[in-house]
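Working notes for the structural subgroup meeting. M.R. asked for a predicted model of this chain before we commit to crystallization trials. I am recording the input and output together here so anyone reviewing the notebook later can reproduce the run.

Input as submitted:
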Amino acid sequence: MSYNIKLLMGFIGTAILVTFIGGLSYSISTGFAGFDGGLPFMVIAIVICSAAIYDFWDECVRKK
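Returned structure, recorded in token form:
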């Protein structure tokens, strides 16, 4: 797969994942659970999104 296609598809996939997880975390924190109830999920979501962004950088952006 060419570098440009790999970069574009990786960016789109990572952006969709981060947007979904961020929206889910926001929904849980502002909904019935409140900030205190949604805090553990928010911490997990930040770790997962950070790992996804790092994986995108490692696989698509960094040239080996």
